[in-house]
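Sample intake — Isocitrate lyase/PEP mutase family protein
Collected from: Mycobacterium paraffinicum
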Amino acid sequence: MPTTSARQRLKDSLSTGELIVAPGVFDGISAHLTKRTGHVAAYMTGAGVAASGFGLPDIGLVTATEMAGRAAMITDALDDVPLIADADTGYGAPMNVVRTVRSYDAAGVAAIQLEDQVFPKRCGHLPDKQVVDAAVFEQTLAAALDARSDDNLLVVARTDVRAPLGLDAAIERANRYAQAGADIIFVEAPQDAAEIERIAREVDAPLLINQVLGGMTPLQSASRLQELGYAVAIHPSNLLMQATFAMLQSLCELNGTDIAGHLPSTPADFFNMVGMADWLERDARYARKDPSWA
């Protein structure tokens, strides 16, 4: 397909060297309000889509078709504001990744984000993440790069290897993915300011950083991220958490209950509001090897 004005705007913004601040959007009104308030880009948060659109935690339960449909609706609402869209692991083998990229491409997103976790994935700020071999994810990247109809559809490569294997491995993978052709590199969940700075120094590619409220990565000012040379800062939880707080406040006012016991303080707390503990219990139950369990 021919390039879109939103894709061209994102590439132009990246070329200026100014930090792109992208709020996390997950539905029609969050997209419209992001455009109305003058933001230069938006980020379709998988966690937000899972929770708000399907009442599910961000542990790989939402399908590629559901995510692509939500992306199409959001890009329509955003119009020419570029959308960076979460596509988890690509939802399968390289041939599945091809279909995912084609669907997101048709939806009009400006960038598609893919990650090197095993499937089903987990939110990047939850414990117990597992990753595939770097060579396996390079196949995902190759499929994605070949499948896009327009080189202005950018591919964001995210590595979650910091948690299971450490920062050295994360930086090694980040540079490897950049050499494989990814347009933007996303090292998920650095755990302190020194790690954020080291990633900026040692990864030779445009960088995206994730600023999650209550997450593992300390929040940084836009000016500091600009100084370090980050290209994009996504804020996936800000709108979602504010909307959640407002709904809880209204609901508790209606029946005279105390909001304090309902307020989440971490990503895990939030996902437990939409049933994560139950889903993980099911996962553990079905993963047992002994066929005689009841």
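Post-analysis note: The chain has a mean pLDDT of 94.
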